[in-house]
Please model this.
Amino acid sequence: MIEGHGDDLYRYDNIKMNFSSNIYNGTDLSALNAYLCTRLDAIRTYPEPSAASLEQMIALECGISPDEVLVTSGAVDAIYLIAQTYRHEGTCHILQPTFREYEDACRVFGYQESEDGALCWLCNPNNPTGDVLAAEDVLALAERHRLLIVDQSYEDYTMAPLLRPADMISRDNVILLHSMTKSYAVPGLRLGYATASPAIISLLREQYRPWAINALSLEAGKWLVQRGVTAIPDLPSYLAETQRLRAMLNEVEGIEAQDTLTNFFLCTIRQTTAAQLKEYLAHEHGILIRDASNFTGLTPHHFRIATQSPAENDALVAAIMNYVLN
Model:
């Protein structure tokens, strides 16, 4: 596991505005909190060994069968499970720059990187760039590799068309990963799931540990799926604010904010490093950004921003401008 994942809020004690995590910060979780308070006795007994009740609910929502869903302790848990299950394949291809855990999971289980590797890992929408690959291009990758893993954790943070679980389960070499953590803005609960053909899910389930999902996470997951409310109430407006923020940053001398189809995007700073900018913003303004230099293929000058409220976005731009000018 790498150090410096966003969100590393735990390293600081004075942060007022957090641009480091890609997860939307404005979600009202009060109703979920109140519900969980009524379910605290669930910790007195073991949870379901395989989260079957939540898998059934997700399957119904996706229009697929429960044997085509595997709930995991966050999408990262599924990443390591897949790498473990297919370790005999030996080779992988990772489209970089992207989420580091694909690379780390493959390293743990002894894979060698190759452009024609057996396993192909794709983050779509991609973290940290915010790019979205078209469906036909994604499926073209499936034709070239033994197994294609498409991490769609940010599927609720874009309006671009993505692959649907119901359309993919007939394929015997495609796994879609989904993040309830991100869809519902509950990163502390660690909830995700994989959708794939029954044969693939069965193979993964054989390798998966029992009681991976704790009782309160299971209760929360079922409550969230039943209500079907995602983290972002007005996605078009939120993405429009992302473009406004990008435009403002591109007006700052020495800053370049890249294109995106999501709520987050990469930036570069020319005259200093992202690490230096991050420390300045954190200590002088209580603002946290993501130093993106530890993504494979990026440089010490890259940092990542996730859009917050208009007022917070204005404050970030003013703070960066002050840093650049001084």
Summary: Residues 235-250 form the longest helix (16 residues). DSSP finds twelve helices and 13 strands in the chain.
